[in-house]
Amino acid sequence: MENQLLIDNVVEKLYKRYPELQDRFGEEGRRKCREDNVHHFNYLQAAADVGEEKIFVDYAIWLNSVLVSRGMKPDHLIDNFVCIQEAIEEGEGDSRFTSYLQAAIRSIRQGEQCETPS
User: Fold this and answer.
1) The whole model's pTM is what?
2) Which Gene3D superfamilies does the entry mention (predicted)?
3) What integer best gives the mean pLDDT of the chain?
């Protein structure tokens, strides 16, 4: 599967950006990160198959709410999506995914602004 190499690249990018992940979670954490990215790519592909970015955006908003409820910050998911974009821009993936990722990042950031008291 062509996305396997892309997913490996994304995981490497994340672990280079956050070297503490290896110390904190070890190989099990790397495996789970890989699984998470398989899900991201499955939703990206589903959105591309029907030409509907809303499929991926809705997934991203839902996933962000789950992660935030477990103590993570939206930036963690956004950084993951940025790593996917970078890998795609390096020529390793479906360029349609980039617009879906950008839309998801915008939606997550808009959600943060709505939740921040003024």
Assistant:
1) 0.88
2) Phycocyanins
3) 91
Beta carbons of 30 and 11 less than 8 angstroms apart: yes
Rg (CA), the chain: 14
Alpha carbon distance 97, 80 (integer Å) = 13
CATH number at residue 61: 1.10.490
Mean pLDDT calculated for residue range 56-85: 95
Per-residue model confidence as pLDDT tens digits over 92-110: 678 899 999 999 999 999 9
Supply the range of the domain harboring residue 99.
2-115
Give the chain's domain count. 1
The three state secondary structure string of 74-111 is HHHHHHHHHHHHHHHHHHHCCCHHHHHHHHHHHHHHHH
CB 33 within 8 A of CB 59: no
What whole-number distance in Å separates Cα of residue 94 and Cα of residue 87? Answer: 10
| Contact yes or no for 61/107 (Cβ under 8 A) | yes
